[in-house]
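User: Sequence in, structure out. Go.
Assistant: Echoing your sequence, followed by the structure tokens.
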Amino acid sequence: MTATRPVAGRRAIEVLLRTELKNAPGCRLVLVDAVWDADEKDTEFTVAVGGGSRRVVVTDQHSPLGVADAWHRHLAGDTTEDDSVLVVTGTVPAEQLGLDLRAHAVDKHPLPVNRAEIVPQLFGAADLDPRMLGEHWLLEALLQAEPLDGWPRVGAVLTRDRAVRALICARLGLGDPASDTLDLDAGTLFAWTRTPAGPALYASLSADEQRGLAAWLARTVGPAAPTLLALAAEGRGSDALPLGVLASAALGSRTAEAAGFALGTLFGPALASFDTLRPFADAATGVLTRWIAQAEGTAVPSGAARSRVLAVLERADKLAADARLTDLVRGDRLLPSGYQSRLRALAVCLDSRGAGAPAVAESALRDLGAHQLAALRADSTETARTAVRLMRWLATEPAAPATVGQAVQEHLSSSGWADLAIGVLAEGDASRDPAVGEAYQRLIGAARERRTALDARFAELLASWTENAHQQANGGALLIEDVLARTAAPLAQGGGRPLVLVLDGMSADVAVRIAGELDARAWTEIVPAVEKGTLPRRQAAVSMLPSVTRVSRASLLCGRPSEGGQAAERTGFAAFWRKRHRKAHLFHKGGYEGRPGHRLAPELVQTLASDDIVAVVVNTIDDALADGREGTSGRSGLTDIGKLPDLLNAARDYGRPVVLVSDHGHVIDRTERGHQPAEVTGVRGARWRTGDAGEGEVALSGPRVLTDGKRITAAWRDDLRYTARQAGYHGGASLAEVTVPVITLVPSEGVVPSGWVLLPPESTEPLWWKSSEAADADAVPEQADQAPAAPPRRPAPGRTSATGPLTLGRRTVRSAPYRTQREFVRLAPTDKAVEAALDALDAAGGKLSPGAVAAAAQAATGKSQRNPARFATMLERLLNIDGYPVLQLVESGRTVQLDRALLTQQFPSPEGTA
């Protein structure tokens, strides 16, 4: 019985010759006890030996005569300079070869091909891990897979793990063969299955090598590896992760047993047993959860990371549909179908009204937010959150405003936010789900009905007020012609250099969105100081009538009721500041945009660097309405308004405070296609005319009407227009058109001017805009502007003092460690300020903006904290004993964070705990 001969390829022969020929330099015949690998194409090649090289010719012979004939032919082809080596492989036993032939061969007998001796040499090692001696698949694979530049050098012993890691790198493309370590886990392996060539490389390996690698990876990576590799071997490697996610969803369903049969069909032979399904599913969901976290790691999720996650999950949903498992996995926290199911459940809640309806919707929203795709589908999630906000607004019952001033202030503080929410919902859901879209449409309808009622009431107030209102009798309202005198002029005192940015057509919803998008690290919002017991609020002015640019913007910039174009505005603006002994410059459209190579016009930049007052009129919003850039939302943000970010950056660079103001607002056309203009006479503009008032209109007359004999008819209903369809309109008498937002900003690194106070971001949003939990938490800090901060928690019985309840802040400032620490902090805040700041943080759950913390201290002490960031830094120095982070600025300085437990530990009080 003939023994099976080993197979030798070029690499094995090269290593064998390199070892043997250095001890037999003149020998030209090498007999090898192996057969030549039929897959090897090269039978002639060169081998480096010692300091030179030898040409090698390989012949595979199967009879003694063939061997002899090959040797004689090799000699016959010799030249005097030829030292080529003939390597004879084949199946001829050594005893059948003549002694005269064997006398010419190295060692005078066939040399064995011992892979256990060859392989260590390939790695520069002297010995081989004994465990590898019986693993022929590994030794053979290491010979076949050697890279062109050779295997990496290792130590004295080639260990099994080092050899397998190198083989995996070479065969599967996982890792770097030259590295001593291989960071290989389930995540790496699942990511490899998503590469174009990875699974195909594994599928091309021999069955023995596949089994060997699978066993090693199972021990190294975990029990998910064999199933994953089995799928790769079947050509379904790219489905490994989707199948794992689907398996997790199915096994977590109420009918997991029934789902198991469908999963068995989906996996096929790749699933060795159902016992392996759970580890595989857990590994897959763990990997995908990490991928989701990576995609969420930035403010805006990375496009590539997000696409990678969604590709896997959408494929999992497709596999579920093919296997008729969709209904079983509908409640899953990973699958897109689970997210969509939760979104539809929320949509069902939006039609409910009544006291308990918002709470039910909020519960559905929390369920949606708990889905792991909530952050990756941020647009859809935020739209759903906005829908619940609008429900909360519909559930509120604020007192009806009694004056025009109260009405415009309430609009900027609340109903303008409702307009913003309507704009968000009008864009629709990103999923384009019809059921969700219909629910949003009905909610928009309900909100518009309420807005219509508010506008109707406002039109009545406006008609009565307009008859006699003027600068000397404003009825408590801020008039647009007084905005410069009430905001810009105080900021200009003492050499101040405000920049007045007039955003033509900016309505309240646009204003609050822009303010919310400002970087708190760059800008701090301020408002004029108010009487104690009154909440500081953003200012809202009343436009001229009709609410059009020619009268409203001219009145704003001239500081008196005026009508005219750009020339009149420039003249009036200069005259206003000349009376205050300041030079002023006004830039209109075309005057501030930079030439090629410039972000802003050099003339504007030079003026900003001077001590003069500067104003810039930006027409982006108004132009967008007139030019028909329709979209259904009309929601302009900070980056949507031409050059606004550049103008703000320039103002900050030159240390200028900014007054962000409009001349009038606008309404968006949300009517159906085909809706026609009203058939009326005396049309003078899109929303105003002469003649008697009809339904949805109001007659306005008096000193504030600056055209047509001080008498006009204006539309207050938002679906009424007199001209051709546009994206939006102004000129009417609705709250959105007549309200003029006024937002005042100072650079965050600067100080709050005298006579002004901070307006914390937390106090700008209406309570209904926040979740119920956030609203409850924020209620105390907002009230802190009226009086010293209330205690965040009710004190235990007996825990009171002569001056009031023992709050967290009070207990802290009375502790001995605090008194000691205070001696080492120069210019530390007063105890009352520290107490109020700590109580405000405690009431808010430990996190507030620096502005809110400073505002709480300001309300308690009556002393303006003119630099919120500096105040927070002083609190850090005062409270962080020995570097322990009791209080710290986080999120790049946007948030002050309090560790309550660490505070009570560092500052124990004999009076007990709060």
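User: And one key feature?
Assistant: The first strand starts at residue 7 and ends at 8.
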